[in-house]
From TrEMBL:
Residues 148-433 form the Methylmalonyl-CoA mutase alpha/beta chain catalytic domain. It comes from Persicitalea jodogahamensis. SUPFAM superfamilies: Cobalamin (vitamin B12)-dependent enzymes. This is Methylmalonyl-CoA mutase alpha/beta chain catalytic domain-containing protein. GO terms for molecular function: cobalamin binding; intramolecular transferase activity. Pfam families: MM_CoA_mutase.
Length: 465
């Protein structure tokens, strides 16, 4: 006679779990163990199967996830000189990298000397992503040398983010993106622009703001590019989402899963078929949480962030060197190798590249993903009602919202939230912590960068573009 392994245990329900929890709290309130993910998202300490069954769209969220496992190991490389950059690219590719993300800054096309910079690299086999504001037609002319090569990778830049940082008109850049799309129409694996979350993440935005404002940026591009004659399918299919991944492990997993579903809601609104619309997500370890006090702790942080990224279903993983973000410090071969090997260990030893959507079915993660979807969509609709992202930005709606979240984030660390090696478990206790706004760089060592970002946001707000 067959018997269930659990036959000797009586069935229980969620209320019984809660009563037991309240008993073990010894007088503390149940509300004390609720987790505030964002202003509009609160998570219970546990969920059960019935919670998932009552969720009306978790199956749709699952269907929106990436259908094939694995990701590209794609180290970010800052352009310095053509020959030196070429050597670094080749070193990465020889030692496990699958592709390259070349950060060109404002270097003019002529100074990039792409023939020399990309010497011996087969662009038809190796994806090379050029993050540059230079006009796409100029870059493509140099990449192809007049031949009809099938290129992989892309020319990826976010003119909207640049506009929010500097006030520079994004119209001409959008014209260039549209021209580049026309020239690469047959190259299905070539990407033409990026939509980044870094600006919102590094200015203190919570996870809901990151998702909503990133989605609003994407919709702005869809409107602008289709207005320039680009088909909705090409506009939706040729972008790269470049997403910062922070240290809140489960939340960051759910963030990427939510982004895929939100993307699908937008593409469906354009009448595009689901099977032809799969976003390409490049996940990058956070610059905001880099510690200057204990830089080797960044290796552990970046490992946690990388695991969130691959569990959340990223298509490409860019792990920053642990010393890359500090004034006067440049990443060296050792720190670059450690960063690259984080991805390689997750692939070759953890086998996380063998599973599609490993978070599927987890009661907590499914509920968290669903709550993020709902909250981010609601905030996105608020931005739409204000006239879209550019209008909301000009009216300082986005800046004020980010300022509120930034202040709340600082308060958390001032009131007991721990950042290992920074406000607790420090190796050097000589410098004071939490003594005013500027000194709060001890909480976020990259504060100078963030202040510059926020200052530029505040300065641009009253400008008329």
């Amino acid at each position: 006679m067959e018997s269930s392994f659990f036959a000797e245990f009586s069935k229980t329900d969620k209320m019984n779990w809660r009563r037991q929890l309240e008993k073990e709290l010894n007088g503390r309130s149940y509300e004390d163990v609720l987790h505030q993910v964002a202003d509009s998202v609160v998570m219970q300490p546990y969920y059960v199967a019935e919670d998932l069954e009552s969720n009306t769209h978790y199956l749709e969220i699952q269907k929106a996830q990436k259908q094939t496992p694995g990701w590209l190991t794609i180290p970010p490389i800052a352009f310095r000189t053509p020959s030196g950059t070429n050597q670094r690219i080749l070193r990465h590719l020889e030692r496990g990298a699958d592709a390259v993300w070349l950060e060109c800054g404002d270097t003019p096309t002529a100074h990039l000397e792409l023939v020399k910079t990309l010497h011996t690299i087969r662009l038809t086999d190796t994806p090379v992503f050029l993050d540059t504001p230079e006009p796409a037609p100029h870059i493509l002319k140099e990449l192809t040398q007049g031949s009809s090569y099938y290129l992989k990778g892309g020319i990826v830049h976010d003119p909207l983010a640049d506009w929010m940082r500097t006030g520079q008109d994004y119209g001409p850049a959008l014209d260039s993106i549209a021209e580049g799309m026309a020239l690469t129409k047959a190259m299905r694996e070539f990407h033409s622009y990026k939509v980044e979350s870094h600006l919102f993440h590094e200015a203190g935005g919570d996870v809901v703001q990151e998702l909503a404002y990133t989605l609003a940026s994407f919709v702005t591009y869809m409107d602008e590019l289709t207005g320039r004659g680009v088909s909705p399918l090409m506009a939706a299919g040729r972008l790269v989402f470049s997403i910062s991944i922070g240290t809140h492990y489960l939340t960051e997993i759910a963030k990427l899963r939510a982004l895929r579903y939100l993307y699908r809601k937008v593409t469906r609104s354009y009448g595009l078929p689901d099977e032809l619309c799969q976003p390409f997500i490049q996940a990058q370890s956070s610059r905001l949480y880099q510690s200057a006090h204990s830089p080797h702790n960044n290796i552990v942080r970046h490992t946690s962030e990388a695991m969130s990224a691959v569990m959340g279903g990223c298509d490409a993983l860019s792990t920053l060197p642990y010393s890359a973000e500090f004034v006067g410090s440049e990443s060296d071969e050792f720190s670059e190798r450690v960063a690259r090997n984080i991805s390689l260990v997750l692939k070759n030893e953890s086998y996380l590249d063998k599973v599609t959507d490993p978070a599927a079915g987890s009661y907590h993660l499914e509920m968290l993903t669903s709550k993020l979807v709902e909250a981010a969509w609601d905030l996105f609709l608020v931005i739409e009602r204000e006239g879209g992202l550019p209008r909301a930005f000009k009216e300082s709606i986005i800046q004020n919202s980010l300022e509120h979240s930034w202040n709340a984030k600082i308060a958390e660390y001032q009131n007991g939230k721990i950042m290992v090696g920074v406000n607790k478990y420090r190796e050097n206790e000589e410098k004071p912590i939490f003594e005013g706004r500027v000194e709060s760089a001890a909480v976020f060592p990259n504060w100078e960068y963030t202040l510059l970002t926020k200052r530029s946001l505040e300065e641009i707000a009253p400008m008329k573009h």
